């Protein structure tokens, strides 16, 4: 690759300019973006499944309408992100095939099951809360189409986080059994939410280069710490206990210290081990196959339109 082009590219990144689809970029930068953006898109789409599971069992019309809107938003986020990745020269079919064949990852968090209604609250509060913490800095990521997609995504995620917290507030102010459901959901979702930020910085192979290229603006550990610090007071307000005996305020550091994360569990979830992961990919493949007639009809319609236009 031409040294002059590379130097000019790096200078633009260092000056916080956005790189746009037709600009020159190193091949490794393009590959990293396709990897991260497509995996982000897959996470949004697979992420519709655990909550979609509860649409038919929401306890009231109001809760059902809120959840339906949220799950549809996640589908929209996936579509913006696939479009952003397509501007880098990859195709939708390739990305979907990578997901279905297991070549591409999606967030570990969606390999956990949603066992009861309180899980829907915990997902909004913790999973969307973690997603916002990670995505706010991505509004300033160096690739323009990704950064711009993040602006709308973050606004919608804020609504998602609030609806989850509101759902849990209703439960903790209800019957003791309802408060116990909320505590049980927090117990199961807390550690997986911390794992969403990825491996620790000293074990994160992509971080150093992604930070240099300003694809990532903050490291995995920095974002995880910010999430813990923001979330502990929210748990206190709910009257729920975070399931970590080592969690304590560090006066000197001005942050919460927290216990050791079970990284074996994280890597098993990344590898897609366990029944829930198999269920997720089976559901995505079925949705793709059952949607074939829609893609065929759209293609046939476009061919007719083009033929008419040519006539
Ligand atoms: N799960 O070197 P690093 C949402 C992989 S939010 C699975 O640190 P990087 C909203 C990583 O890909 C969730 N794999 O990698 C929602 C890499 O493998 P690779 C989605 C993970 O890229 C809420 C390897 O480990 N958000 O969907 C995970 O620099 C509710 C080494 O890791 C995003 O994707 C993980 N948790 O940093 C939807 C945000 N962590 O690719 C529905 C954008 C790491 O080399 C309902 N992505 N790995 O084969 C990012 O910010 C980054 O890609 C990180 C990972 C921080 C996830």
UniProtKB/TrEMBL annotation:
Any one Gene Ontology BP term: phenylacetate catabolic process
Organism listed in the record: Caenibius tardaugens NBRC 16725
Top-rank taxon, per record: Bacteria
GO-annotated cellular components: cytosol
Organism taxonomic ancestry: Bacteria, Pseudomonadati, Pseudomonadota, Alphaproteobacteria, Sphingomonadales
InterPro entries per the UniProt record, alphabetical: Aromatic_CoA_ox/epox (IPR052703), Ferritin-like (IPR012347), Ferritin-like_SF (IPR009078), PaaA (IPR011881), PaaA_PaaC (IPR007814)
Protein name: Phenylacetate-CoA oxygenase PaaG subunit
GO molecular function: phenylacetyl-CoA 1,2-epoxidase activity
């Amino acid at each position: 690759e031409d040294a002059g082009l590379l130097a000019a590219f790096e200078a633009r990144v260092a000056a916080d300019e956005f790189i746009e689809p037709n600009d020159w970029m190193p091949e490794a930068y393009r590959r990293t973006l396709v990897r991260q953006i497509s995996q982000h898109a897959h996470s949004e789409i697979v992420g519709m499944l655990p909550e979609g599971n509860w649409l038919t069992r929401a306890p009231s019309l109001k809760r059902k309408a809120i959840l339906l809107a949220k799950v549809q938003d996640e589908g929209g986020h996936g579509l913006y992100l696939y479009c952003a990745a397509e501007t880098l020269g990859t195709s939708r079919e390739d990305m979907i095939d990578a997901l279905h064949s297991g070549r591409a990852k999606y967030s570990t968090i969606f390999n956990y099951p949603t066992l009861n209604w309180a899980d829907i609250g915990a997902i909004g509060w913790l999973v969307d809360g973690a997603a916002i913490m990670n995505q706010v800095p991505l509004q300033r990521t160096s690739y323009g189409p990704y950064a711009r997609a993040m602006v709308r995504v973050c606004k919608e995620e804020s609504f998602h986080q609030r609806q989850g917290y509101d759902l849990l507030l209703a439960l903790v102010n209800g019957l003791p059994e309802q408060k116990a459901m909320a505590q049980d959901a927090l117990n199961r979702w807390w550690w997986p939410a911390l794992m969403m930020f990825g491996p620790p910085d000293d074990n994160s192979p992509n971080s150093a280069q992604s930070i240099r290229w300003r694809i990532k603006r903050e490291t995995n550990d920095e974002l995880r710490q910010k999430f813990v610090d923001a979330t502990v007071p929210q748990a206190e307000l709910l009257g729920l206990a975070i399931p970590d005996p080592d969690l304590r305020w560090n006066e000197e550091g001005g942050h919460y210290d927290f216990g050791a994360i079970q990284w074996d569990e994280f890597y098993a979830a990344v590898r897609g081990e366990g029944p829930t992961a198999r269920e997720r990919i089976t559901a995505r493949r079925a949705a793709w196959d059952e949607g074939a007639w829609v893609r065929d009809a759209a293609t046939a319609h476009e061919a007719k339109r083009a033929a008419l236009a040519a006539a």
